[in-house]
């Protein structure tokens, strides 16, 4: 005991630093050197119309997605911990199966469901609820639907873990002291689960910031989020320095969110 | 458990809402089934009979077969490499304490924390310089780096759950460090290693963002093929791939759940 196996980690660290960390720093450094030294790339990013629209769309979509995914995850998690054995198995299956299915295939499924002549519009028209097909995809609505679908399991799983650890005797105590169901839930249960809600919110928000595939497919080129904008700038317009500035901003926002998470709940606990 | 004695407030209301959400989660995965058996070359409901043509195509068409084969090779290689690297890192950091340890842990978790597009940019330039851009080995290494944190977290959790007395017992009976590792520690964390490897395989199998930036024509994995097809023309073959994937996923989930009992 005591001596451990530290030498095992050294080659892995050397590899990571050599092929990943140093190139990462070099790429980010291009934001202040390419095409000319200075902060011009950042100035453009925060002042020009196009880049600002991308920035605000990214925040709007991520905030709405986080809100809805955590709400959905909370409802599912609560139902999982309060359901009987059978109900719990069914709900867990509904959470876990999509969790393992490819992001591309899920985006593809939503695309064919939500497009103008897709099943959802067919049903709405068939029921007489609308005459013209509704624009459900190739816009922010479609992106949010796809992202919420992807991220609900990521919110539900940590919330299930948090709720399973709660001491339900507290609820029993509240009830025996005369609390109604409503009071017991809103004033006792909900506050006790807030650290879990916060952790789930940060995890979902961080993942949503980095989304690339879902917005690219369900946004259909009309909704541009930061990740896709970075790729457009690298692959199509070849503005490396500007793409690097975008990547740096994306990374900094992510690190701030992760920092807030590790301050309050502990990174390992939240990820585990 | 105490839980069973106390009723959750509004349990029924939450159960109804959760059932609606469960439908929202699962229903989109089912829509691909009817489309995959359509007789047409475009996406449609099978109104005029059913056909297996799209299933036959994904296993016989050279482009789909090539993509399938590339994905199998890459995912096997990447999961093996990620398993070795991630387990070595987990063993190395096991029971270490000190100021540096937090920083090293953060470094190992970086590919998980850094947005995929940023990782893709970093690896893209690096792979060109190393001469491994658009090679099977290069894609394997890129995927292994992306999957590394998941193996690290899974194996670390297994190691933390290990009873320290079994190691003490092995050492006090005269086993050396490597003997203890190979014959006591590793066999005892086998489920963790298995889970880590499976995790890495699934991540590599699905990876598209980084793959788009470290490969071009020579290596064309299944997600890249699907990505290209969705963006050009919606092909029912994607629905057939989707059905096969969902079935395999459900089978693996059932097998894992079955073994836990």
Task: Describe the structure in your own words.
The complex is a heterodimer of chains A (272) and B (261). Chain A has 272 residues and is an all-alpha fold. Chain A has 13 helices and no strands. Chain A is globular, with a radius of gyration of 23 Å. The mean pLDDT of chain A is 90. Chain B is mainly α and 261 residues long. Helix content of chain B is 77%, strand content 0%. Chain B is built from 13 helices and no strands. In chain B, helix 3 (53-60) crosses helix 13 (236-260), helix 4 crosses helix 10 (190-206) and helix 5 crosses helix 7 (136-160). Chain B is globular. The interface between A and B is large, with 91 and 91 residues.
Summarize the topology.
The complex is a heterodimer of chains A (272) and B (261).
Chain A: H1 9-29, H2 40-47, H3 49-82, H4 85-100, H5 103-114, H6 119-126, H7 140-164, H8 169-176, H9 181-209, H10 213-218, H11 226-235, H12 240-264, H13 267-271
Chain B: H1 11-30, H2 32-36, H3 53-60, H4 62-93, H5 99-113, H6 116-130, H7 136-160, H8 164-172, H9 177-188, H10 190-206, H11 209-214, H12 222-232, H13 236-260
Largest interface in this structure: A-B, 91 and 91 residues
User: What is the CA-atom radius of gyration of chain B, in angstroms?
Assistant: 23 Å
Kindly state the percentage of residues in helix of chain B: over 70%
Strand content of chain A: under 5%
* Chain-averaged pLDDT of chain A: 90
Describe the global form of chain A. Answer: globular
Tally of individual helices of chain A:
13
Number of strands of chain A: 0
- Coarse shape of chain B: globular
Radius of gyration of chain A: 23 Å
Which secondary-structure class do the elements of chain A indicate?
A: mainly alpha
Instruction: Give the oligomeric state.
Output: heterodimer
Order of helices and strands of chain B: HHHHHHHHHHHHH
Strand content of chain B: under 5%
Q: Could you list the spans of chain B in which at least 5 consecutive residues all have pLDDT below 50?
A: none
End-to-end separation of chain B in angstroms reads 19 Å
- End-to-end separation of chain A in angstroms reads 25 Å
